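User: Structure with 6-O-phosphono-beta-D-glucopyranose, tokens only please.
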Amino acid sequence: MSETENKSVEITKGVNGLEKIILREIRGSSAEVYLYGAHVTSWKNEQGEELLFVSSKAIFKPSKPIRGGIPICFPQFSNMGSLEAHGFARNRVWTIDTDPPPLLPNVTDGVFVDLLLKPTEEDLKIWPHSFEYRLRVTLGPGGDLMLTSRIRNTNTDGKAFTFTFAYHTYFSVSDISEVRVEGLETFDYLDNLKNRERYTEQGDAITFESEVDKIYLSTPTKIAILDHEKKRTFVVRKDGLPDAVVWNPWDKKAKAMADFGDDEYKHMLCVEAAAIEKPITLKPGEEWKVRQELSAVPSSYFSGQLDPSKVLQSS
Ligand code: BG6
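Assistant:
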């Protein structure tokens, strides 16, 4: 954990007495992370505006994952085989990692917390692999939110393991019909609504007028989500995560989810940095390290240059 006079890390109780960590930065931004799922449930800018969506019906109770924020999908994205949907990392209680191995490059800016997940005997029965999953959640001085994952194979039986992964980020948007996503045009995707058939996205930015559940493949490192009504642009920068899921359940699926309000689909959009198409294999002793960095900037920042190639090329 990092701490100085002007920034802080607080460990406190959240909903239903579940432990959470609050990160606060000098200029007023903040983030909250539950030990349950290592789940980021809040990310606020310097004005105190919430940038992530969490459902008003979210159930903060093991073993149901929290609906909203940033669930971690590991060791599988989706619902394949006998493992639970999106894996078990999002519904296990993580611990605070007080002595993590150094994370290089050693950036000391910002305030952060290190969390750790190791499998229990019960977990080993459903997924027979030893691992150490270290997650660092960092709130940068400018309010950016960084999630760095390090997953290590600690098997002693000499066996490799294979997994898929996603940071299932729920962004808060003012009105989904006013939102567009730039950076995924012309890329191939698997359509989850059509048995994962493969298609190629058109040349225009993505807009929303019905249910969307697509896995874009081998995408660039930057994706922009433009919220016209809020005049805000989210920028997702991803490192080591080739794929990007875009999901909005729309009205029918919203009604079918017990932990999601009927109209809440209008105010959220999931854009998920992921590794799905090509599963990751780790041999014993090997470690996989990936990162997602989120920033929220006034749209005027990009005004006149909403040409995706420009937005996405600028640093
Ligand atoms: C998305 C998937 O990532 O997560 C969707 O692409 C899925 O197919 C959605 O419905 C929500 O999943 P869950 O398990 O959190 O309800």
